[in-house]
Inverse folding.
């Protein structure tokens, strides 16, 4: 699985957990500043030959109220760890989930380790 496919598969998995629509509410890569929704992007990792073996993704949701941010975090990280899903050997939460308020929006940000 190449990095673009892996990032898209993780985005699709996260969107399904939250009941979000891919490409409208849940995107891969960057989320425009001040835009409610969520994104998934790989931030670091290791490759095994030409194939991926392990990457860490930042998952971030931006919402108009704190309850929505908490529900988002619960839906994503409450589903972890999972094994043999969406082309991954495992998806495991890593570190803490950070909740914040930015310019009237509430965010939930955390990391997911994707193993292939």
């Amino acid at each position: 699985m190449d990095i673009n496919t892996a990032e898209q598969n993780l985005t699709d998995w996260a969107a399904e957990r939250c009941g979000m629509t891919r490409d409208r509410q849940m995107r891969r890569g960057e989320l425009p500043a001040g835009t409610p929704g969520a994104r998934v992007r790989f931030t670091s990792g290791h490759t095994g030959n030409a194939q991926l073996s392990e990457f860490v993704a930042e998952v971030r949701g931006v919402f108009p109220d704190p309850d929505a941010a908490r529900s988002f975090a619960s839906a994503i990280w409450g589903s972890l760890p999972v094994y043999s899903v969406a082309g991954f050997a495992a998806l495991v939460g890593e570190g803490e989930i950070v909740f914040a308020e930015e310019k009237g929006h509430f965010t939930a940000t955390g990391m997911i380790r994707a193993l292939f």
